[in-house]
Amino acid sequence: MAMAIAGLKFAVVFAFILLIDHCQAVQHAAGGTTGWTLSTLNYSQWAAQNTFKVGDTLSFVYTAGDHTVLQVSKADYTTCNTAAPLKSYMGGNNVVPLPTAGSYWFICGVPGHCPIMAFGITVTAAAAAPPPKATPAPPPGKASSPPPKSSTPAPSPSSSRTASAPSPSSTGVAPSPAKSGSSPVSPPTVPAPAPSLTVNNTNAPPPSISGSSVLVANAYMLLLGTIALLLFRVLHPF
In the prediction, which pLDDT does 75 show? Predict the structure, then answer.
């Protein structure tokens, strides 16, 4: 069971790598809509108008028996030498991988077809995908100024009218203290200022959906399907 799980993990990782390469690679048709044939098309100009990256492929579509595809060195390309090709293709529908960066040279192996059917390309390393741009945060809104505090001073308590104390009697008994004519008035309560509210007048722009997000979502769904199929094969071997 442990070996089966380890094999499943390896298969999932391998499938994920293949999925990424497949999503990023581009297949270029040699000659565009014209294909690989004797025509007035300048194949060198066609190659200069295209960009080739590592992992891309080059397809040659032609009638079987009428033409061939030879990958040769630069010297053999210049002289149209078909005697020592690096690789040769025939059959009418060939797909040539471009696994490494560098120059690739192709000619037709049928006598007399080169230099008309001949071109060279330069393959460059695939650039890393740029990091996703962060959505800028909206600027903070201006806070409204708090209401001014009341500057009216609290009224002072009214003065108490105190009855004058009677003169002491001849018996020497101290007179009772006089009672105040009115109770002191308490100052009015000043209400606390209402809390200020921060008003944000700038709405954040809705997040944009880029084409790369759709590609990643499709790749994720395909990966989930691959994992489910591999898990089923492990749990239910034939």
Answer: 97
